[in-house]
Amino acid sequence: MRNCVPARSTASRAKRARWAHCALLAIAAVAASDVPVAPAVAQTAIAEASERSVKAAFVFKFTQYVDWPAGAAPVSEPLTIGVVGSAAYVDELTSMTQGRSVGERAVQVRRVADDDPVDDLEVLFIAGDQRGRLRDTLSRARGRPILTVTESEGALSDGSIINFTRMGDRVRFEVSLAEAGASGLRLNSRLLAVAQSIRQAP
C-alpha cells in the first residue's frame, strides 16, 4: 500500500486522509491479490475479474461509511444490496459479503430485475452493461434512502450518488453530495476524503 495517498489530498489534509484511504483500499487490494498470472489470451478476462472484485469490495465497504435515516429499517432485517445487470457482480458480492454484517445487520445480496421493487434496498448497484437504461433505473431509487452506486461515465448527472471511475490502472470513485442529500443519506467524511471528486450540494 505504498501509494496509499488520496489523489486530491493537500499537505494539510494528507495525514488525516491517509489512513481513511488505506482503510478503503485495503479490502480491495486483498480481494485482487489472489489473481494468478495467465497467458496473454486470458489477460483481459483476468483484468475484468480483478476489477470486478475490487469494485465489489468497495461496494461492501461503502456501507460502513453511510448513515441511513433513523428508522429507515429495523436492525433485525438484513442490509440488502441489490444488483441490476451483470450476474457476475451478484456472485462476486454474494461471495464477498457472506457471513458479514454492518453494525448489527446481516448483509444480503439479490439481483434486481426491471420490474422488481427497490423499497427494501439499502444499496443499489447498477452495472455498466445497463448504461442505456441507467437514468430510468436510477429514477426508481431517487428520493428514497438508497445508496446508488454505478460504473458508467457521466452517471452522477443521471442521479447516481457514487460512481466508479478509473485513474490509470486504479479504480477510483466520484461522489454527488446533492444526490446523497436528496436521498436522506449522510456520507462519512472519511469516505469523502478519498473520493476522486465531489459534486457539492447546491
Walk me through the topology.
Blueprint: H1 11-32, H2 43-62, E1 66-67, E2 79-84, H3 87-97, E3 101-102, E4 105-111, E5 123-126, H4 134-141, E6 147-150, E7 162-167, E8 170-176, H5 177-182, E9 186-187, H6 189-192, E10 197-199
Parallel strand pairs: 2-4, 2-5, 5-6, 6-7, 8-10
Antiparallel strand pairs: 1-9, 3-4, 7-8
Helix pairs in contact: 1-2, 2-3
Structure, described:
- Helix 1 crosses helix 2 (43-62) and helix 2 crosses helix 3.
- The chain is an alpha/beta fold and 202 residues long.
- It is built from six helices and ten strands; from the N terminus they run H-H-E-E-H-E-E-E-H-E-E-E-H-E-H-E.
- It has a single domain, classed as Response regulator (Rossmann fold, 3-Layer(aba) Sandwich), CATH 3.40.50.
- Helix content is 35%, strand content 21%.
- It starts with 10 loop residues before the first helix and ends with a strand.
- A hairpin with a 2-residue loop joins strand 7 and strand 8 (170-176).
- It has helices spanning 11-32, 43-62, 87-97, 134-141, 177-182, 189-192, and strands spanning 66-67, 79-84, 101-102, 105-111, 123-126, 147-150, 162-167, 170-176, 186-187, 197-199.
